[in-house]
């Protein structure tokens, strides 16, 4: 009994923490090896092309030709993390509208107060990892409302993802 007390007095708190850390690491390794715990690479179901729409509201532009065009490349930043340069599939440009009541019906017309203010949707295509939660692009789950920045040589627009379409899911 006296020997056990001497051994316990020699063990410090640091030794106990190190021993517990090793035991926990071994348990996690065993659980992962036996496939009880699912690691991130096992959650990927497939890879597929994904088309997503970036909605950008209230862009002021007075130039002769809008800088984002179909077929161009734009650099994408997702949640303030630079991702990559992707192809622009299409650009839907709409001047800011206002509602006018003519006595019988409500009409929408281009707002004369803001002749150079536009709302636009930029359609972009990329390859993505498909998980049970949806598409993952650049380490981010691609879902509506995700903040995205589009940047080119003459522009930098902030918008949000408004639609995600997975092309040929399950292939």
Number of strands: 10
- By oligomeric state, this entry counts as single chain
CATH topology of the largest domain: Elongation Factor Tu (Ef-tu), domain 3
Helix content: 10-25%
Q: How many strands, what sense, and barrel or not for the largest sheet?
A: 6 strands, antiparallel, barrel
In what range is the share of β-strand residues?
Answer: over 45%
Give the averaged pLDDT, no decimals: 86
What does this structure look like?
- This protein has a six-stranded antiparallel beta barrel.
- The longest helix has 21 residues, at 13-33.
- Strand 4 (97-101) and strand 5 (106-110) form a beta hairpin.
- The chain folds into two domains: 2-33; 42-166, Elongation Factor Tu (Ef-tu), domain 3 (Beta Barrel).
- It is built from two helices and ten strands; from the N terminus they run H-H-E-E-E-E-E-E-E-E-E-E.
- The model has no long low-confidence stretch (mean pLDDT 86).
- With 171 residues, the chain is of the alpha+beta class.
- It starts with a helix and ends in a 5-residue tail after the last strand.
- The chain has helices at 2-10, 13-33; strands at 44-60, 73-78, 81-95, 97-101, 106-110, 117-131, 134-137, 140-141, 147-151, 156-166.
- It is elongated and about 100 Å long.
- Helix content is 18%, strand content 50%.
